[in-house]
Amino acid sequence: DPFSALVPEGALADYERGQALARSRSGILLIKDHGIAYALAVGEGSPAAAAGIERGDVIATLAGVDTRSEPIWKLQRRLAGEPGETLTARIVRQGEPSEKTLTLASYTAPAPRLEEERGVPILHLARIEKGDAALVRALVEPLGAKGASKLLIDLQAVGGGDAEEAFAIAALFAQGELGRLESKGERVCEFPSEAAPIWKGELALAVDGGTFGAGEIVAAVLEKRAGAKTVGLKTFGWAGE
After folding, report:
1. How far from chain centre, in Å, is Cα 127?
2. Torsions phi, psi for 232 (to 5 deg)
3. pLDDT at residue 17 is higher than 50
4. Dihedral sign computed on CA atoms, order 184, 8, 2, 212
5. Are 224 and 201 in contact (CB under 8 A)?
6. Alpha-carbon gap, residue 229 to 106, rounded angstroms
7. What is the pLDDT of residue 241?
């Protein structure tokens, strides 16, 4: 798929380091699609956001290197540099080029949060990491007592992350066999959920092209097991409204 990459065996350590640190040092979820590198997501309050880089920006050069000729794992290695390191990025936004200066730092994506729009609670997930299921539970459990009957989960630009935690979040809303993780066709582990869901009302999901990895797991499970429907965050609505 567009997010796949070939990594030489000798570069595996660099690749894994970039996977682990690139986003937490820069705030950019960087991908390459047909040779073009662009910011699939830019974290709120991240170094990239402070530099003026926005979601959807094409990253034409990074640290003086043409990104079309640089494999994704090498670009991620650059973004996984030490805090305080400065990178110059030439971006293209709606056909207009400009230069941005990105200073790497230790960055943690915002924790799950709950907001309300038009009387409907919206659960925003900027990440899916260890411990987030407990945070989601604490936010969602009180909603029923407050009379809420509809919930929208915003999974836009939620890519990568912890797959097992994704199933733990899905288990809060769905019951039964949620799915399994496999590696090279071998079954690794299954994720049954026997506990009753903490949410009884209607459920909708906001997804986009950046919903993949852990975010895609949550979306797929909730569509199949919890009857969730997919909507646009800016134009969300339920049947009859």
Report:
1. 5
2. -90, 135
3. yes
4. positive
5. no
6. 36
7. 38
Query: What pLDDT is recorded for position 155?
Result: 94
Does residue 20 register a pLDDT over 90?
A: no
- Which residue, among 130, 126, 123, has the nearest Cα to 164 in the 3D structure? 130
- pLDDT score, position 40: 86
| DSSP string for the chain | -TT-----GGGHHHHHHHHHHHHHHH-EEEEEETTEEEEEEE-TT-HHHHTT--TT-EEEEETTEETTSS-HHHHHHHHT--TT-EEEEEEEETTEEEEEEEE-----PPPPEEEEETTEEEEE-S---TTHHHHHHHHHGGGGGGT--EEEEE-TT--SS-HHHHHHHHTTT--EEEEEEEETTEEEEEEEE-SPPS--SEEEEE--TT--THHHHHHHHHHHHS--EEE-GGG---TT-
Amino acid at 80: A
Q: Which two structure tokens, joined as six digits, stand for 136?
A: 């989601």
Rounded Cα–Cα distance for residues 131 and 125 (Å): 13
CB neighbours (10 Å) of residue 99? 12
Q: Which residues pair with 206 in a beta bridge?
A: 154, 231
How big is the chain by its Cα radius of gyration, in Å?
19
Q: How far is residue 109's CA from residue 46's CA, in Å, rounded to a whole number?
A: 8
For 33-56, what is each residue's pLDDT tens digit?
Answer: 888 999 988 988 999 999 999 989
Matching residue, tokens 């699609």 = 33
